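Input (structure):
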């Protein structure tokens, strides 16, 4: 969390935080963190060595896939219809 105090737009740091929440079973916190990456971080290339190349912003592929996986897990735990509706905004920005 120290990096977020320095750089609020660091998509890699937000991804790690979301992954930590998911690993702890804090699915709602993980969902909000991945949504933060997609809506509030700048779309820039990662500068971290050996990084997966997370770009942040609405085109961050890792955050989109991880968020879809979280919606799938939440749908299994609860009624599937609300989770599917929440995932509907994840339409591919490239016209997939």
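Output (sequence):
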């Amino acid at each position: 969390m120290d990096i977020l105090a320095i750089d609020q737009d660091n998509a890699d740091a937000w991804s790690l935080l979301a992954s930590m929440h998911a690993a702890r079973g804090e699915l709602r916190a993980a969902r909000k963190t991945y949504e933060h990456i997609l809506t509030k971080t700048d779309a820039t290339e990662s500068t971290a060595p050996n990084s997966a190349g997370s770009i942040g912003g609405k085109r961050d592929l890792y955050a989109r896939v991880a968020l879809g996986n979280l919606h799938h897990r939440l749908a299994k735990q609860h009624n599937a219809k609300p989770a599917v509706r929440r995932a509907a905004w994840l339409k591919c920005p490239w016209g997939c």
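Notes: Residues 46-50 have pLDDT under 50 and may be disordered. The domain at 2-90 is CATH 1.25.40 (Serine Threonine Protein Phosphatase 5, Tetratricopeptide repeat).
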